[in-house]
Amino acid sequence: MSRTMKAAVFEKPGVIAVKQVPVPEIGDDEVLIRVKLTGICGTDWSIYTGKYSADKLPLIAGHEFSGQVEQVGRNARGLKVGDKVTADINMSCGHCFYCKRGQKLLCPEFVQLGIHIDGTFAEYVKAPWSQVHRIPDKLSFMDAAFIEPVSCTIHSAKAMQAELGSSVAIIGSGLGILHGALARLRGCAPVIVIGHNTKRNEIARKMGADHVIDTKVVSDPVAEVKRLTGGRGADYMLESVGTIATYEQAFRMVRPGGQVSAFGITGDKETMALSPFDIVLNEKKVTASCAGVGNDWSDAITLIEHGRIDPRPMFSMVVPLEELESALKEIRNNPELIKVFVSPEATKREIL
Ligand SMILES: [Zn+2]
Ligand SMILES: [Zn+2]
After folding, report:
1. In this structure, which ligand is nearest to the CA of 93?
2. DSSP helix/strand/coil, 14
3. DSSP secondary structure code for residue 103 in this structure
4. Which ligand is nearest to the CA of 105?
C-alpha cells in the first residue's frame, strides 16, 4: 500500500478538506520535498472561490513554499536528502516557439505547481529536479517560502527597466511594498506607494518608499502623484492591485512619455476605458508581467541573502494546515495581515 500524507484538498469552490492522500511518487527526473512552510497568496483565494483554475479541482493548492529534500530521482543531480530548497513553480513544454525564445510564461502548455497541478498545502510535494533551487543557510524556511513572490516582482522590475533617478509610483500595498523596495534598489526617486491601510503603508515606508499616499485620507491620488513628481506624473506607474479603477488611474498618473507596468490581475473578462488619443499624443508605454521564471528565482535568493531585500516586516503569522480555510477568510477581512504561512507541522498558530 502506498504511503499517505496530510493535505488540504480544494475539492470544489468554497470547500477545502484536510485529509489523507497518497504521497506523490517521483519519477527519475523528479524530487520529493517535505514541505516546511507555504505562503498564502491571493491566487489561493481565487482558486478557493472558483474564479481561477475551477476546471482543475480537486487540487492541492499552495505554491509559495520551502522544504527539505526527502527523496531524489535517479537523474536528479546536485541535490541530496535534507537540502533546504524551494522550486520554480512554472513549467512549460521546452520546445515550442515561446520556450525556444526563453518566454516560457507564454507557452501554450504552461502550468504552475499549486495552481494547475498539485502543490504544497500538504506534507510532501514533488517537483522536477531542474526546477529546484537550493537555499543558502542564511535564509530561514520563512524567507525561502517568500522567494516566489519576490521573483514575480523582480521579473516585473526587469520588464519595467526603471532608470536611475526616475520616479516610480506603485498602486497597491500588498506586493506593491516589494515593488517599492525594488524601485529604491534600482536607484529610483521618489518612490511612491499608494494604499489604504495604515499598517501596510507604514511597512511600505520602512521598506523603501519615500512617500505613501493613504487613499483613505487623500481624496485625489492622481493629483497627489502629480504634486510629488513636479506636476508631470510619475515616470513609471506600476499597478499592483488588479482592479479596473486602479488600472485606469495608472494611465492618468503616468507622465507624458512615461510607462505603465501592469502587474495586478483582474478578472479575465474585465475591460477598461482608455483614451487612445492620450496614449498616442502623450507617447505612453505599457509593459506587463506577473510571474518570475528562470534566474528571477536565483536573483531573489541573492537579494535576500545579501540583505538587499529584507521581507520580514511583511510576515504576519503561521497557522497549521488545518486552519488554512479560516486563514484564507481572515486575510480577506483583515488588511493588516500581509503574508500568512501555513505549516503542516504546526499545531497552533504563531503571530509574528
Ligand atoms: Zn503567489
Ligand atoms: Zn513551450
Report:
1. 2
2. coil
3. -
4. 2
